[in-house]
Amino acid sequence: MEHNFEQAWLLALEERFGVQAKIGQVALANLPRMLIYYFQDFPAQGMLTAVTAGLSNANHPNWVNGKPELSFTLHTTDTGWGSAAAYIAQSFFNDSSFHYQASFKIDQPMSKDSAMNACFVYRPQFMNEEQIKFELPDRTIFLAGLFPMYDEEVPMYESKGIQEFWNTPGFDPYNPRRASIAPKG
Predict the structure, then answer these.
(1) Cis peptide before 43, with omega less than 30 degrees from 0?
(2) Residue 7's Cα: distance from chain center in Å?
């Protein structure tokens, strides 16, 4: 069953994206199995899109019309971002609905190429509302985007809300090496 889902999800993503994936796995003791599908140079040259496969095996009362899988899309070659997405999915497996605007923080940087250790959930910007929905034989998946931020940006994000945070000068959703936009002081 699990293998069939993973294969169906991989094929659905490759078909929608038009790019073949490389497959990684994050194995953490006592946590659910999680694969990561890496799409290099997608959606543009020099970008990496990493997508989880396994979060949709969880259950949450808010998941009525479908279940999420998570993705990072960044100007990077560092596959650590995929591992971070899988770690977040595993850590909050049956505890979070991963709804838009939810934020998450981990204890260390999410990758080697960035000091960012937090992120928020929103629609992947290179896809529209119809494109994020995937009908698989055994489930409906909505692809959710993760957007990295610095620890000190979390209070700002939570107080301003997604629109104002997104429109703050210096915010770049695809740059894992951008400067912090949190007010100094």
Answers:
(1) yes
(2) 19
- What are the structural domain ranges in the chain? 5-167
Residue 86, pLDDT > 70, answer yes
Its pTM stands at 0.95
Residue pair 147/122 in contact (Cβ under 8 Å)? The answer is: yes
Distance separating alpha carbons of residues 88 and 30, to the nearest angstrom: 14
Amino acid type, 6? E
3-state secondary structure of 87: helix
Burial of 93 (0-12, 13-18, 19+ CB in 10 A): middle
Q: How many CB atoms lie within 10 A of CB 6?
A: 17
Rounded Cα gap, residues 150 and 130, in angstroms: 30
Residue 113, burial from CB neighbour count under 10 angstroms (0-12, 13-18, 19+): middle
